[in-house]
Task: structure prediction
Amino acid sequence: MTIDPPWLSTRLDLSAYKARGGKMIFYHGISDPGPSVSNTINYYNRLVQLNGGLTPTQAFARLFMVPAMTHCSGGPSTDSFDPLTAIVNWVEKGVAPEQMVAKARAANASGLTSVKPAIPADRTRPLCAYPKTAVYKSGDVEKAESFVCQ
Result:
C-alpha cells in the first residue's frame, strides 16, 4: 500500500487498512512553514466524511495539532511527545489516545532569543485529539494538568 503525504493525497479509501485493525496517528505543527496545516485538517475532515463521522473515524485514525511547532519539531513549542507509545497502547491495549502530553525542549526555550518572553524549558501541554483543543482551566499555566481538552 502506498501512502501519499496528506497534502498531496487523494487516497481517502482506507477501508482495507481499517478492516485489518490498522490504527494511525497524524500530527502536524500549526506553524509548519512547508505543507500547510490546513491541508492536513482538510484531509482528516474528508476521512471523517467518508467514514461516517468523527466517532467511526477516531476508531482507527486520530489527528493531533501541535501549537507553534514548525516542520516536525522546533519553534516556540511543546514539541517533545511520544506518539509511538500512544499507538502501541492503542493497538495492543485498546486504549485510544485522547491526548498526549508534550513538553518543551531546552533548545526550544534557549535557542529562541527572538521569542519574548522565551518559553520555559519545563513547559508541558496536552495535545488533544482533533477537533478538541487544550483550554486552560486553572493552576500553573506552564503545566499540562492545568488544561483540559474540549
